[in-house]
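Troubleshooting: if your tokenizer reports a length mismatch, compare your output against this known-good record of 246 residues.
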Amino acid sequence: METNEKALLIDRRYTCPVCDKQIRSKSVKSNSARFVNTMADLRPIYSNINITKYDAVCCPNCGYAALTQNFNNISSTQRKLIQTKIQTNYKSHEETECDFYTTEVAISRMKMALLCTITKEAKDSEIGNVCLRISWLYQDLADEIPEDAPDAASKKELYLKEAENAAMKSYQHLTNARMNENYPIAGMNETTLDYLLSYFAYKKGDYQAAMQFLSGVVSNRSTSPRLKDKALELKDVISQAKGQES
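Known-good structure output:
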């Protein structure tokens, strides 16, 4: 994948809304990613590139970072919070030249986005969305480990634990968003969000909540056939887990 990754990217230019500096961030070219599948936690899989690695924009001058779709959505109050709590402690540096972002670099960028998103006191939906992507990236990192690599099993276990921790934080914030915010939430409509929350509740071991979230997904006529199939698969998995518990 890495051999062809550079050709699928462009350097997109932004004006940082915190320090007003011109910056660049790598972005996936339109219609260049070849979709393969969506995992149970909605992690997208593409055959030729990992698009999640390019979901965050980071300013090397002041330290402000956010998901691409939220980068310019910052109020004057939030700007002051970033300037006071991030920029004053951030060591400015030149943009690092590279052909593409490794998964480790992408995780670092996404964690900076999480720090800034929390610092600017963003909505639960935005925080939960960043946490979701951190979870996906740690799973990607675990998938990249060669089976014959030194300490492969322990590294994979560590990365998957980090993925789980991020997923549970996402679950917490997106559940709060569901109660207090209007749709779309983190880019998701009602049925998609409820499916994701059902999956996270299942992973947490709260099978009752998982079934409650899932019931509306299965019965809603507006649910897409693909999502309904995933929901029915998840329903069977939860039912089996409940049976084993009793």
